[in-house]
Structure formats: C-alpha cells, structure tokens
Amino acid sequence: MTSTEESLSGGPAGYRAVLAVREFRAVFAAHLLSLLGLVTGELALSVLVYRVTGSPLISALAFALGFLPYLLGGTLLAGVADRYPARRVLVVCNLLCAASTVVMALPGAPVAVLLAMRCSSALIGPVLAGTRSATLGDVLGEGDLFVLGRSLIRIVTQGAQLAGFAAGGLLLTAVPPRTALLCTVAGFLAAALLLRCGTRRRPGRATGGADVVGASLSGARRLLADRRTRALLLLSWCPPFFLVAPESLAAPYADAIGAGTVGVGLLLCGMPVGTILGEVLAGALLGPRGRERIALPAAAVLLLPFLLYVLRPSLGWALFTVALAGLGAAYTLGLDQWFVAAVPEELRGRAMTLQTAGTMTVQGLGMALAGAAAEYVPVHWVVAGSGVTGTLVVGSVVRLVVGSA
After folding, report:
1. Contact (Cβ atoms closer than 8 angstroms) between residue 391 and residue 301
2. At what angle do helices 379-404 and 227-243 cross, to 10 degrees?
3. Which of 166, 177, 163, 309 is nearest to 246 (CA)?
4. pLDDT in tens, 83-94
5. 3-state class of 192 per DSSP?
6. Domains of the chain by start residue, with CATH
7. Nearest to 371 by CA among 357, 384, 383, 359
8. Do 387 and 304 form a contact (C-beta atoms < 8 A)?
9. Start and end of every Major facilitator superfamily (MFS) profile domain (predicted)?
10. CA end-to-end span of the chain, whole Å?
11. What sign does the CA torsion over 375, 274, 128, 120 have?
12. The pTM is what?
C-alpha cells in the first residue's frame, strides 16, 4: 500500500504522506520557525513592558493585544488572501511582522510604540494564518491530506507554544528582552525565505472587483449568508470560547488549592497536551469517514469534563480534567473536511482568514469573561459553569450543523 493510499484509509502513514509533500514541508517548517520566534517574542515583550512601566496591567495588555486586533484584521483584510498570489502574501506578511519586531527591539522605543507594533503584527496575523490554510488546499488538495495537514499545523502550534515559552524563559535569563526580540525577527525572516524558495507561485483566486476592504466585507457577507458555512463557522468558534476558562483562571485556581507557581505552569500545559494527543490519535487511527463520524459527538461532549470542577479537584485531577477536554478538540479534523467542501474555491482564503480571526477573538473574549466572573464567583464554579453553559450552546450549534447538511 502506498503512503497516499494509507493516508486515505486513515492508516498510520497518513501524517507521513503529508510530510512527504515537499511544498508542505516548506510551509510547515516556516510556520514552526515563525511561531517559535513569535512565542519567544511575546514573552520578551511582556517582560520588557513590565520592566519599563512596572505595571502588571500594561504588561498583560501586551499579551491581550495579540488577540484583540484579530477581528479587525480578519474582517477588513481577509480579501488579501484571495486577491494576491498566496506565496507573495505569505512572504510579505512575515517580512512585515519582522519589521514590526525590529522596531520593538530598538533601544529606547516608548511603550506606546511597543504596543502599537504589537497591534500591527496582530492585524497581519489572521491574513497570514488564513492564507497559509488556504494554501494547504492548493498544495495537498481538498481531501484527507488537507485535513491531516491542518491537523499537523495545529499540533505544532500547541507544541511550539509549550516549547517557546520554556525556551523564552531560559533565554531571558541570559539576554535582555530587546535582544530576545531579535529571535522573533530571525524566525520571521527565515520563514519568509523558506516560503519564497520552497513553494510555487500560484495566481490569486479572486481578481478585479472591489478594493480589498470591500472584497473582505462582501466575502464575509457571502460566507455568513450561507446556512451551511455559517453553522460550521459557529462550530469552529463556540467550543474555544468556553475551553479557555481553566487556562485563563489557572493562576487563581492554583492559588486556591495551594499548588503554587508550579501548579500554574502544569495547568497551562494540560489543555495543549490533551489537544495534541486527540489530534494525533484521530489523525493516525481513524480514516476520513471515522473522523467525520466522531466530529459532532466529540464537539457535543468536549466541555462536560469541566463539571468535575464542582468538586474543587486537586492539581492532579484538574490536570486530568483539562487534558480530557482537550482530547475532544479532535472534532476539528472532521470539521475541516466539511468546511473546505462547503466554501467556494474563490472564497477559500477569506473563509480561512475569517475562521481564524473568529477563533482568536472568541478566545480573548472567553478569557476576559471568565476572569470577570471569577471576581464574584469562586473559580471552580466559574469553570464548572463554563462546562454547563458551553455544553448547552455547543449542543445547539451541533443541531444547526446537522440541519444544514
């Protein structure tokens, strides 16, 4: 059996078949390099802002600004992903992010400039992510290899976040934050070079017509007007809104159970570990039909483990709970196949950009609302409440997806 045939049957060679595609390896490696640099840069920027201002609020804002502009960039700039050749968009986005980081690393740059550059990178982020996802359809086709390719991108994203924060923490013990920011610049520049040399030039999917903003807004209207696409976008956005509750409240929960800073770090690792495990198992052990069959049941129950927080679990049980919820994120593999099939090819870049922007935005909102609720309600009740409310909401969305088929 060939690698491609095994991939289509869901055998263990599925991920190997994806990595056997030369262009995908270039996209994958570029994403890994830029992501490791970005995570290190986020940590360095937060430390730098805190050292300059002494304000925990402004330091936290440096992180939050990585989420907030996503909606604006994903809504107004999504048309770029379809209007221009994908390789050019990917290279230019990485170069612009590198330029923004160079400004951050300049000695004496004011805090306002640091935050403005953070915003500019976040505006570019959804266009970069959406174009990359759409490019996977060109490189891998619209079948099972596309699904497994997106799965690998998500897996490396989760893993690189864990590794990047650890590496960034070690790096900051040896060099100043502004020097550490240069690692981010190097990551973006290396990614741009890989994409320029390792991928083929393909023409844009959409030509002529309205300007970029007009094309972005009209594309969003077309996507949201379609019943099937709208239901699938909601299924992309609703679970992450609730899934971030235990992560956003890791520090106060660890303090409440006496787990200390080590507990905070472990609680932040639980969800990514569960998510990676779920993606790998679903991608390696299940075929396309199997992943589609489990998608809706997994989405419907993935928040139920949060109900264990009613018992105010110890650190070990809390880790088990969030990791178990992370396993349910394997529903995204089936969702990816439905989504790429439902979206017209000329709207694929805008669709992927809108999907990414929405996911990042709802995560930021979910974190903020969970934190606000924890001001008045014990943390373990907030997480348990997220599980109850989220299960009801996601269940309603699942019914919409079934009705739109």
Report:
1. yes
2. 170
3. 309
4. 888 899 999 999
5. helix
6. 1-200 (1.20.1250.20), 212-405 (1.20.1250)
7. 383
8. yes
9. 207-405
10. 33
11. positive
12. 0.80
